[in-house]
């Protein structure tokens, strides 16, 4: 099976759904955020001490380590900030977009301190969401609307199209 890349904004459920697919399909699972944390330390600390650009370098490094076959890969919401990442996923696997409304994301994340880019003011967060939504949509081979659905329902929809 071609590797599945899960994309979407912070809080859209990529990691939870990714782990469910990993168990359901019995294939390996990677999470680019987790890979960065294991090699370079906590994300909030990287943003604070080295800056966002350095974090993007680490994230790109991890993405390019993923294989084109038999993996479920959850990506960070900002993976689309680099064109090379978008090209890499397009050339190497199938891309599934978890499409979650801004209202639902705001509800889920509250004031989560572990996500540095969620600490912006409301207007800037909305701008970031809108800018990225366009890229997610363009990139996706398949989109799942996730509002009001459980992670199990979302994983079930993805399994149906495989
Ligand atoms: C980010 C999203 C986070 C993480 C980092 C930056 C972003 O991942 O990579 O905080 O730029 O949207 P999640 O989408 O898993 O929250």
From TrEMBL:
GO terms for molecular function: ATP binding; magnesium ion binding; shikimate kinase activity. Its EC number is 2.7.1.71. Substrate binds at residues 33, 56, 77, 132. One of its GO terms (biological process) is chorismate biosynthetic process. It holds the Pfam family SKI. Keywords: Amino-acid biosynthesis, Aromatic amino acid biosynthesis, ATP-binding, Cytoplasm, Kinase, Magnesium, Metal-binding, Nucleotide-binding, Transferase. Gene3D superfamilies: P-loop containing nucleotide triphosphate hydrolases. Monomer. This is Shikimate kinase. It comes from Lentibacillus halodurans. The lineage of its organism: Bacteria, Bacillati, Bacillota, Bacilli, Bacillales.
